[in-house]
Amino acid sequence: MLICPGCAAKLAYVSQPACYRCGKPLDNERTEYCADCAKERHEFIQGRAVFRYEGPLRGLLYRYKYANRRDYTEFLATQAAGRHAAWAVKIQPDLVIPVPLAKKRMRQRGYNQAELCARRFAQLAGLPFDAGLLVRTRNTVPQKELSAKERKNNLKNAFKINRNVVNLKRVLLVDDIYTTGSTIDAAALVLKQSGVKEVYFLCISIGQGQ
Predict the structure, then answer these.
(1) Torsions phi, psi of 46, nearest 5?
(2) What 3-state DSSP class applies to 172?
(3) What is the pLDDT of residues 102-158, one digit of tens each?
(4) What's the predicted TM-score (pTM) here?
(5) C-alpha–C-alpha distance, residues 29 and 16, integer Å
């Protein structure tokens, strides 16, 4: 294990009850959808997440994204596969696709953490993977700095497809953090407009629902 036993014990996994649509953990087991999914129309069918975005996971993901801790990939992908590989296989996606970084950010960082995790998860689950189909066309403002409405506007026309995808019926998007779903929705919309019938997602971490 690449993290100490003390921190590993503090990691909070997503468990039931959880939102049927996005997978956010809920307080009330009688509630089917979180507040966001109950009022918002999403472009994806369903999503799952591994951890709650809290505690030591915040620092772990920060280092994974910004401090070149690519070695966390094996731990995170293994945890994702252990929790959700069966779900992903049941979906039968034609491709597992990471949410891409803009070229400028990719040059600065040197890698896309979502791509590393998605590639390894796909290997562990035995699913086809493609890192080049979906591309980011511009360097958007970090989503964490914006309101829900600003997040949607920030991502308009931020993605495009590199080639014809009419033969793809189902796609599984992979990202590191799910908050409001704006990023997944924007990517899913482009995929659907290009011919993909259904989009699902898997995230390493997710916020709390209501």
Answers:
(1) -165, 155
(2) strand
(3) 888 888 899 999 999 999 999 999 999 999 999 998 765 554 554 555 555 556 678
(4) 0.90
(5) 8
